[in-house]
Amino acid sequence: MVGGMKRLAPLVLALCCAVLFTGSAPAAEKKEKTPGIELATMASQVTGIAISPLLGVSGVGAYQWMKASTPEEKARLPWFAQVSFWLPALLLVGVCAFKDTFAVMVPPGMKKPLDVAETVENKISGLVAAGAVVPSLVTVGSKLIMHSTGLLGHAPVVSGGFGVLPLAAFDMSWLLTLLMVPLSVAVFAVVWVVGHAINVLILLSPWGGLDTALKGIRTSVLSLVAATAYIDPVVGATLSVAIIILAYFMAGWAFRLMVFGSVFSWDFFTFRRTRFQLLADDNKLFTGRDIADAPRRTYGRLHQDADGKLLFKFRPWLVLPERMVEVPRDGIVVGKGFFYSEVLGFEKVADKNSTLLLLPPRYVGHEELFARTYRINGTCDIGLRKAWSWLREAFGLSTKKAPAAM
Fold first, then answer.
1. I want to staple 11 with a disulfide (CB 3.0 to 4.6 A). Which of 97, 111, 283, 303 is the partner?
2. CA nearest 192: which of 265, 112, 255?
3. pLDDT tens digits in sequence order for the chain, 406 residues long
4. Does the CA dihedral 74-75-79-83 come out positive or negative?
5. Alpha carbon separation from 283 to 22, 303, 376 (Å, rounded)
6. Helical axes 134-148 vs 173-204, angle rounded to 10°
7. Which of 244, 125, 262 is nearest to 200 (CA)?
8. CA angle (356, 256, 350) in 5-degree steps
9. What CA–CA distance (Å, rounded) separates 206 from 161?
10. Helical packing angle, 53-67 and 108-128, nearest 10°
């Protein structure tokens, strides 16, 4: 019973998070409407949506729909506040939570296609939120901020030499929106990149229990933002600022993970291995561990000199000037995986072979040619392919035959 409750924890957290997130705005209404309160509420909403775009957007949309009291008001709501969007979105969040809840009950490889699909969904919902939802929330928030200052909703009269002019005729909320939208989108992007890294980590995770833990951590952080914003918008905004600062310092690591997840998802869904042609040199891949100045999961090209030296060329953040580091050849061998393959190399610290380079899914089936191209001696099975080879040999299904005795 206790184990079942633990497995259901991510689903419960997701549902509680939706309720708390949609309830953060009523708490703000209980306080005096000041510009600081409105800004704090907006900061919490943007941060919460960035952590989990689909859950955050559907939660905000559900609250706006429930807040509208008449059919006319509901009809004027933005698209993400319509039942046709937020209800299916919340159901999809529940399906994802259900998938991760029972991840420990299925073999890791069986869930990977669903993990890839969820990674793509997180990218799409993040782009939609950054391009449409966040600017919409900031626009409304800017009007509320201006209204709370008394510059909107009242018409104080300014006397002039030739007549009088109501001050409310000057709606300056557009200027505040113009300043706030780029800043909000930048904040959203920084936090979203770090939140999206969890999806990529789940994609790489070899154990379903770790998937559940990672998803639970992200949902817990979102729940904490929503809960603190419900209790006190200023406290919620303070927590949001702390999350933004932390995300800023993690952005480089998370960006590399995002690129890694994007390439792997694209290769997987488009079956790129069926049309992939290995180049004679400068093939694109990722580092599997830190190699000199190239951090783990850096995207770049593998180059081979005439003397056989392997060099990894990469651009930090994909656009900065190109750098080059030497790839050690000690004990390297190509590991053939079921979903993706690796180049294994000897690691002195661990005193064993470990992942040196990561080959995207497009290389599956091309490992032998890759090894010959870069003068790597031999290949071996890894991961699920290694397990399958063991099963075939255990049940006598292997096609390999021992050489005849002389």
1. 97
2. 255
3. 434 434 444 443 443 444 344 444 444 444 556 666 777 888 888 898 999 899 889 988 898 899 888 888 888 888 888 999 999 999 988 888 777 666 666 665 667 777 888 888 888 999 888 888 888 777 776 676 666 665 555 444 444 443 444 444 455 666 777 778 888 889 999 999 999 988 888 877 766 677 778 888 888 888 898 888 878 888 988 999 999 999 999 999 999 999 998 898 889 888 999 999 999 999 999 999 999 999 999 999 999 998 889 999 999 999 999 999 999 998 899 999 888 899 999 887 777 788 999 999 999 999 999 999 999 988 888 765 545 454 444 444 554 444 443 3
4. positive
5. 48, 7, 15
6. 140
7. 262
8. 30
9. 77
10. 50
Q: What is the pTM of this model?
A: 0.70
What is the domain partition of the chain in residue ranges? 2-156+171-269, 283-394
| Amino acid at position 268, single letter | F
Joined together, the tokens standing for residue 198 give: 């969890």
Angle at 280 between CA 275 and CA 282, to 5 degrees: 90
Strand order in the sheet with 333-336: 323-327, 310-314, 299-304, 283-287, 352-359, 341-347, 333-336, 379-381
> Who's near 60: CB < 8 A, 6+ residues apart?
21, 22, 45, 49, 80, 81, 133, 137
Pairing type for strands 379-381 and 333-336 reads parallel
